[in-house]
Amino acid sequence: MLQGAVISEDMVKDGYEDIMNIDISSVAIELMRTKYEHFPQLKYLQMDFRDMSFFSDDTFDCIIDKGTLDSLMVWKVSCCFIAITLLI
Ligand SMILES: C[S@@+](CC[C@H](N)C(=O)[O-])C[C@H]1O[C@@H](n2cnc3c(N)ncnc32)[C@H](O)[C@@H]1O
Description:
Elements: H1 4-13, E1 19-23, H2 26-35, E2 42-46, H3 66-87
Parallel strand pairs: 1-2
The structure holds S-adenosylmethionine (SAM).
């Protein structure tokens, strides 16, 4: 979640007002709570995403899986790296 926090911060700057961030690591959650304590729009909860029963079905308008985004972004960066390598 650490780099993912930047997404949440950017979403607040874009006008989103209520963002729940979760991570199974209490250390990560405490770090992010401290770092973003001046962002009341960001909430942090230590929990396992495999059991989201804590939330009712209509709690969220949208859920972002940062791990999937990371995979896509790594792919994009990798393609650039391969292209540059081939040019050299
Ligand atoms: C490698 S980190 C990357 C985080 C994110 N991609 C980012 O850039 O901030 C993966 C995160 O997933 C969390 N994680 C692993 N299993 C989890 C689970 N079952 N529920 C919630 N978070 C989990 C870890 O604690 C860790 O903070």
